[in-house]
Specification:
16 helices; 487 residues; two-stranded antiparallel ribbon; mainly alpha; single chain
Length: 487
């Protein structure tokens, strides 16, 4: 079972991030040296851009989970402002450092082997705001991979709106039914977008296949993984949950399926290995195969099934997890470092040198990424996290000083129910629960329980008056205040 830190962080996913980042490095070095274009390893190296698919599914899983939990009254509601600020701190400080480094060490106008590349101030502004792909422009050789970062940022902006629409309501089962429809729509948008753009050459020239709609189905696959535990808590999606549970308890089977699907993507059915444009059917085949491969690869890793496997053990190794922590920097800086090494080693395009260029690029990327993580990424994220938590505390404090009318004390809430005003730490996924509960429970509801009026006060008990026999000394006149009604 995956090691879980405080807050529910899955260590195994750090290893997956490292695997995805170095896969992207491998495909770029393979293309530069020609090993991903022809030769025995060409099909494998050319398809290592599959690492981007892993990144998108991880984002869908990790970031959507808190919204689902909150909708089903299991976790505090994520604050949209805090969510966006933390995403900003995660992306932009290191990314802007990349732009500065690229401007310093890569000339604005230089020979890239087959043409002269020119980068203008307008291009740099578009890069700085992650809007370059919307202008049909991606001119700099060392920044061609940033399109995926633009897609990630678009998803961050769209996610709170998607959650607000698909998770509205107060009855969990109705929420999950609405969730089914919403995810189905997201699944359909990706392939349909690709089919439409391939029929409009002008849109394809504008890099429309690198916009968010083309990859919504990949994010939706991660969102499905995020919904499975919550679906179990309300007994929704029974067939899908049982199928997922059966597959997750056999990780070897899942990864064999993923391997077969990835092998299919290495065939010509998924398109050429070069930059030649793929046909509509090739693009669609590659797109669907990549998504399915990533889903089956991640399914046993995010499952709570208590199974161990050599791959899971390898991905949770502390050294692999450390590489996962700095993987964002590896992804960012590897291209500019690779082209700097190409110039230093005087390597020609498509003329070999993979065995030299790949380890040097990996080593340089690790060093620069570690510095970026220590100096920029971690301090920026810690600062924003403190500020967003302080803002939530200030709101609570200001609410506390407002005088409230006197009212009878409400009954104490049961232990374990979180306060809705506490901000969700969405950088950490939550503790995973079972997908298939042992026994189904009745439908829960988040509708407030009506307050019944207090019962009317009971009448006072009757007074027991002593009986005094006649003729006794006590049979003297009784004071009026002590007389019985019959007296």
């Amino acid at each position: 079972m995956s090691t879980t830190k405080a807050g529910g962080h899955l260590d195994v996913l750090d290893g997956v991030r490292a695997l995805a980042a170095f896969a992207v490095v491998g495909t770029h070095v393979g293309f530069q040296t020609g090993r991903a274009v022809e030769g025995f390893w060409a099909p494998f190296l050319a398809r290592l851009d599959f690492g981007v698919t892993l990144f998108f599914l991880l984002s869908g899983f990790l970031l959507y989970r808190p919204f689902v939990e909150a909708a089903l009254d299991l976790r505090p509601r994520p604050q949209t402002t805090a969510f966006l600020w933390r995403r900003f701190a995660r992306i932009f400080p290191a990314y802007w450092a990349l732009l500065v480094l690229t401007m310093l060490i890569r000339p604005w106008e230089h020979d890239v082997g087959f043409t002269v590349q020119k980068t203008t101030w307008t291009d740099w502004i578009e890069y700085a705001t992650l809007t370059h792909i919307y202008f049909g422009d991606n001119p700099h050789q060392a920044l061609t991979h940033i399109w995926s970062l633009t897609v990630e940022m678009s998803f961050y902006l769209a996610l709170p709106l998607i959650a607000a629409v698909s998770l509205k309501g107060r009855r969990p089962r109705r929420i999950m039914r609405r969730q089914t429809v919403a995810l189905a729509v997201l699944f359909a948008i990706g392939p349909l977008w690709g089919l439409v753009i391939h029929q409009i050459p002008s849109m394809r020239d504008q890099l429309a296949l690198q916009w968010l709609p083309a990859y919504l189905d990949w994010f939706a696959l991660g969102m499905v993984l995020a919904c499975l535990p919550s679906a179990a808590s309300v007994d929704a999606w029974p067939r899908l949950r049982r199928l997922a549970e059966d597959l997750a308890t056999a990780p070897g089977t899942c990864w064999i399926i993923a391997g077969i699907l990835f092998a299919l993507s290495m065939t010509p059915v998924a398109g050429p290995y070069t930059l030649e444009a793929a046909t509509t059917s090739q693009w669609l085949a590659k797109h669907l195969l990549y998504g399915a491969t990533a889903f089956f690869m991640l399914l046993p890793l995010v499952s709570p099934a208590p199974r161990t496997h050599p791959l899971r053990i390898a991905l949770t190794d502390k050294r692999v997890r450390w590489l996962g922590e700095i993987s964002y920097g590896v992804f960012l800086f590897h291209l500019v470092l690779m082209f700097t090494l190409v110039d230093a080693l005087n390597l020609e395009l498509f003329r070999g040198g993979f065995s030299t260029l790949f380890p040097l690029t990996v080593l340089a990327a690790i060093v620069v990424a570690a510095i970026s993580y220590r100096v920029l990424e971690r301090p920026a994220q810690a600062y924003v996290r403190r500020r967003t938590r302080r803002g939530a505390a200030d709101i609570q404090a200001s609410d506390a000083v407002v005088p409230a009318p006197e009212a009878p004390a409400a009954p104490a809430e049961p232990a374990g129910v979180p306060e809705p005003s506490v901000p969700w730490d969405y950088d950490q996924p939550v503790q995973l629960g079972p997908w298939v509960p042992e026994s189904a429970t009745d439908e829960r509801t988040t509708e407030p329980i009506p307050h019944l009026p207090p019962p009317s006060p009971l009448p006072p008990p009757p007074i027991e008056w002593p009986t005094i026999p006649h003729g006794s000394p006590a049979s003297q006149p009784v004071p009026p205040a002590q007389r019985r009604p019959s007296d």
